[in-house]
Amino acid sequence: MVLGGKMKRNIKLTIQYDGTNYYGFQRQAGRNIDTIQGKLELCLAKVFKEPIKVRGSGRTDGGVHAEGQVVSFFTTSVIPVEKIALALNHRLPRDIIALKAEEVDLNFHAQYHAFGKKYVYSFYQGVTPSPFYRLYSYFVPYQLDFEKMEAACTLLKGTHNFKAFSSSGSNVKTFERTIYDIDLIKNGNHWQVSISGNGFLYNMVRIIVGALIDIGRGRLDISCIEEALETTNRNLLGKKAPPHGLCLKEVYYSPINYEE
């Protein structure tokens, strides 16, 4: 496509970031705050010498991290695609890194053409917190029952109405989502919940993890999972886990032609 006499290109960019110092991914109009999108667009504009607007695969909250976030954007620049990530990393702050850039079909959209995502939530159980894990893992000072938590994970697999597992303010057409897989992994005092699905509601992963931890410590009964899925009652579940333990690991795309 030609734009203003120049050929328009669509770039798919995979990035990593430490979300500690940011108010989430999405740029917020009228607010002078640091966001991942804001920083990324500012640095892209300097590299390409033109305004750039990125479209993310989804939004992450303040404090949430990403190892495989994907954005797409249009440009008329002729910079070779294999040099884009390197050029961008010279401009980006140290807590945001461009992993790779790919030139894709003009119809490709980072959000609308994603068919699934994988998140990992990390926490550690112990008597005292650790200064070394404080930015990337949630400290849980309780004994946890692995078997009960694992059984609860099994109940969440499949397609359900996950309205009870979303925070108020979710602006969606349907609360139905499919969890492809959910695994509870324990390595000493370090725990992880790995979860993949076709999409996630606002705060869905953090609410799931909060419920699993409450089940593991005996604060909630495992039956709350089935009841919450059946009744969509958010009050049956406890508080959501804090954001800093959450990381967007991967966004899934099909190798297809991206037709409108």
From TrEMBL:
InterPro entries: PsdUridine_synth_cat_dom_sf, PsdUridine_synth_TruA, PsdUridine_synth_TruA_a/b_dom, PsdUridine_synth_TruA_C, TruA/RsuA/RluB/E/F_N. The keyword DNA damage does not apply. GO terms for molecular function: RNA binding; tRNA pseudouridine(38-40) synthase activity. Substrate binds at residue 119. Its EC number is 5.4.99.12. It holds the Pfam family PseudoU_synth_1. The active site is at residue 61. GO terms for biological process: tRNA pseudouridine synthesis. The keyword Transmembrane does not apply. It is an enzyme of class 5 (isomerase). Signal peptide: none annotated. SUPFAM superfamilies: Pseudouridine synthase (SSF55120). Residues 15-112, 152-254 form the Pseudouridine synthase I TruA alpha/beta domain. It catalyses: uridine(38/39/40) in tRNA = pseudouridine(38/39/40) in tRNA. CDD domains: PseudoU_synth_EcTruA. Keywords: Isomerase, tRNA processing. NCBIfam families: hisT_truA (TIGR00071). Belongs to the tRNA pseudouridine synthase TruA family. PANTHER family: PSEUDOURIDYLATE SYNTHASE (PTHR11142), TRNA PSEUDOURIDINE SYNTHASE-LIKE 1 (PTHR11142:SF0). Formation of pseudouridine at positions 38, 39 and 40 in the anticodon stem and loop of transfer RNAs. Homodimer. This is tRNA pseudouridine synthase A. It comes from Desulfonispora thiosulfatigenes DSM 11270.
